[in-house]
C-alpha cells in the first residue's frame, strides 16, 4: 500500500510557517544588504568531482544522483564549495556575496531540532586579498546582528583558529597525518563529554593517551583577548609558527570586535574545531544558550549551533587550473534551526500570525451588487491596494465580516444602493467596528493612510 508522505528528513511548510520563514529571510537579507553584499545563484547539483574531497568525514553524507549515462552528479552539500567553484570558473578575485538556497545531506534527521536532509542555508562571504582579520570581524558582526534582531534568546559566538588548533595538536604530540581525524573528534566536544571524546581519540583514532591528555588541558580553556595574550606566553605554543600566527591574529580580531561592540557575546574557545576540511584560519560558531530557570511550560527546543563559518583561503585554488588562490571568509546561518525555535515560540504565545497581506475586503450589504463589487475591487488592485472579494454572487454581510476576522483583514469597504448613489464607500474597521463614509475618489488614499498607521 502506497503511503502518502514527504521523504524522510523533509517537510512541507504551511502558510503560517511560510509567514514566519519569510520574515526571517527578510531580516537576514536586509542585514546582508546593509553590509554591502550582492547575490548569486548556482545549480542545485554539481559535478560529483567538484564536491569530492572537500568535506572530510562528512563526504559520506553527500547525495549522489543516479548515473544516467552522462555526467556523474551530486546534490550540493553546502553553498561554500559551489561558491569557490564559481569564483575559480569566472576568474573572480574579489566579491562580497550572499546566497540563500537549499542544500542536501544524507544525515540522520532530527526534525524537532531542526536537522533535515533538505534545508536552507543563508551564506555571507567576503572573497579577496584584504588586511588581516577585518573581513573576519565583519562576518562575526553580521552573525551578531542577525541573532540579536531575530530575538531567539541569549547566544554566544565561539571563535578559534585552525592554525592554533594545528599548533596545539603538534605540541601535544599528534602525528601530522592524524590532525584532521583528531580535529573532527574534538569537534564533538559540544555534544559529548571529554571522556567520550578521549576514548574515540585513543581507541578509534589510535592516539597516544598522553597526547590526548595534553589536548584535554588546552581544549578546556576559554576566554577572550586575555586568553590569546596568555597563550602567547605559553612556552610550547608560542614556539609553533602556526599557533603564533593564529594567536597574533586572534588579538587583532578581538580588537576589531571591541570596536564593533560585540565582544560581550564572543568567546575564544580552544575546543571549537568545526569538522570541515577546507578551513585554514579563524573559525566561529554561534550557539544558543538555554536559560537555566525556564518555566516548565516554556521549555524550548535545545537547538545548539545556529550559525558557523570561518576562513578558507585554499578552496578556490583547488579549482583553479593554475592554483591561483583567492582568500575567503564567510558565515552560514542554519535557518531551519532558527525556524523551529520561532515556530515553537509562536505556538506557545498563541499570537495570531497573518498569512496574507490583504488590506481590505470589498463587501456588499444587499443582493445583486456582484458587478459593482468586482468593479471596485479591480479599481483597488489597479491602484496597488491588496484587496479581496468573496466569490459569491450574494454573500451574507456577516459571512463577509467573519472572513475578515478569520484571516486578519483589517478593513471592509462596503457598498450598497445608497452608497453608489452618493459616490461613497462605507469603510469599516474590523477590530473596532467603527464605520465612516469615504468618498470613492479618496478611498485609495484613506486605505493607504490606515495601512501605514496599523
The count of strands amounts to: 16
Number of helices: 16
Task: Name the poorly predicted regions.
Answer: 296-302
Helix content: 25-40%
> What characterizes the major β-sheet?
9 strands, mixed
Radius of gyration, rounded? 28 Å
Strand order of the largest sheet: 1-4-5-11-10-9-6-8-7
Shape: elongated
Q: How large a portion of the residues is in β-strands, by DSSP E? A: 15-25%
Mean pLDDT: 91
Distance between the termini: 51 Å
- Secondary-structure-derived class: alpha+beta
Written overview of the protein:
- The chain is 40% helix and 19% strand.
- The strands form 3 sheets. The chain has a 9-stranded mixed sheet with strand order 1-4-5-11-10-9-6-8-7. A 5-stranded mixed sheet has the order 13-12-14-15-16, sandwiched between helices.
- It is of the alpha+beta class.
- The radius of gyration is 28 Å and the shape is elongated.
Keywords:
16 helices; alpha+beta; 454 residues; 9-stranded mixed beta sheet
Secondary structure topology:
Blueprint: H1 15-34, E1 38-39, E2 45-47, H2 48-51, E3 73-75, H3 80-89, E4 95-104, E5 118-127, H4 134-150, E6 155-161, H5 162-172, H6 179-186, H7 194-204, H8 209-219, E7 222-223, H9 225-232, H10 241-259, E8 266-269, E9 282-288, E10 305-311, H11 315-319, E11 328-334, H12 335-349, E12 360-364, H13 370-382, E13 387-389, H14 397-407, E14 411-415, H15 417-422, E15 424-429, E16 435-439, H16 443-453
Parallel strand pairs: 1-4, 6-8, 12-13, 12-14
Antiparallel strand pairs: 2-3, 4-5, 5-11, 6-9, 7-8, 9-10, 10-11, 14-15, 15-16
Helix pairs in contact: 1-4, 1-12, 4-10, 5-10, 7-8, 9-10
Amino acid at each position: 500500500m502506497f503511503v502518502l508522505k514527504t521523504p524522510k528528513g523533509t517537510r512541507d511548510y504551511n502558510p503560517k510557517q511560510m509567514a514566519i520563514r519569510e520574515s526571517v529571510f527578510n531580516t537576514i537579507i536586509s542585514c546582508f544588504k546593509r553590509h554591502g553584499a550582492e547575490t548569486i545563484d548556482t545549480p542545485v547539483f554539481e559535478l560529483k568531482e567538484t564536491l569530492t574531497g572537500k568535506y572530510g568525514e562528512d563526504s559520506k553524507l553527500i547525495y549522489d544522483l543516479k548515473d544516467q549515462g552522462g555526467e556523474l552528479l551530486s546534490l550540493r552539500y553546502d553553498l561554500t564549495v559551489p561558491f569557490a567553484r564559481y569564483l575559480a570558473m569566472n576568474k573572480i578575485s574579489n566579491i562580497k556575496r550572499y546566497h540563500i538556497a537549499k542544500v542536501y545531506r544524507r544525515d540522520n534527521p532530527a526534525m524537532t531540532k531542526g536537522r533535515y536532509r533538505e534545508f536552507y542555508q543563508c551564506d555571507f562571504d567576503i572573497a579577496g586579498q584584504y588586511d588581516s582579520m577585518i573581513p573576519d570581524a565583519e562576518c562575526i558582526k553580521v552573525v551578531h546582528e542577525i541573532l540579536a534582531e531575530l530575538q531567539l534568546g541569549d547566544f554566544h559566538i565561539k571563535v578559534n583558529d585552525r592554525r592554533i588548533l594545528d599548533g596545539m595538536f603538534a605540541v601535544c604530540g599528534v602525528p601530522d597525518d592524524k590532525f584532521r581525524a583528531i580535529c573532527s573528534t574534538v569537534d564533538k566536544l559540544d555534544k559529548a563529554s571529554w571522556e567520550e571524546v578521549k576514548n574515540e581519540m585513543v581507541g578509534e583514532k589510535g592516539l597516544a593517551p598522553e597526547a590526548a591528555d595534553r589536548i584535554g588541558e588546552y581544549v578546556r580553556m576559554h576566554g577572550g583577548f586575555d586568553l590569546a595574550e596568555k597563550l602567547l606566553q605559553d612556552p610550547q605554543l608560542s614556539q609553533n609558527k602556526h599557533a603564533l600566527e593564529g594567536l597574533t591574529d586572534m588579538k587583532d580580531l578581538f580588537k576589531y570586535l571591541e570596536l564593533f561592540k560585540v565582544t560581550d557575546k564572543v568567546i575564544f574557545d580552544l575546543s571549537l574545531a568545526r569538522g570541515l576540511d577546507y578551513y585554514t584560519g579563524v573559525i566561529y560558531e554561534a550557539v544558543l544558550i538555554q536559560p537555566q530557570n525556564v518555566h516548565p511550560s516554556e521549555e524550548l527546543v535545545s537547538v545548539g549551533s545556529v550559525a558557523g563559518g570561518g576562513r578558507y583561503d585554499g578552496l578556490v585554488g583547488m579549482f583553479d587550473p593554475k592554483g591561483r588562490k583567492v582568500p575567503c571568509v564567510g558565515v552560514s546561518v542554519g535557518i531551519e534551526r532558527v525556524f523551529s525555535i520561532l515556530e515553537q515560540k509562536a505556538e506557545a504565545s498563541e499570537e495570531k500570525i497573518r498569512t496574507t497581506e490583504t488590506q481590505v475586503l470589498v463587501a456588499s450589504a444587499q443582493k445583486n451588487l456582484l458587478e459593482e463589487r468586482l468593479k471596485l475591487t479591480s479599481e483597488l488592485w489597479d491602484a496597488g491596494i491588496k484587496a479581496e472579494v468573496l466569490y459569491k454572487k450574494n454573500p451574507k454581510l456577516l459571512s463577509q465580516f467573519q472572513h475578515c476576522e478569520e484571516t486578519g483583514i483589517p478593513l471592509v469597504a462596503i457598498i450598497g444602493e445608497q452608497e453608489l448613489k452618493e459616490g461613497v464607500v462605507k469603510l469599516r474597521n474590523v477590530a473596532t467596528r467603527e464605520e465612516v463614509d469615504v468618498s470613492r475618489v479618496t478611498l485609495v488614499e484613506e486605505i493607504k493612510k490606515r495601512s501605514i498607521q496599523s
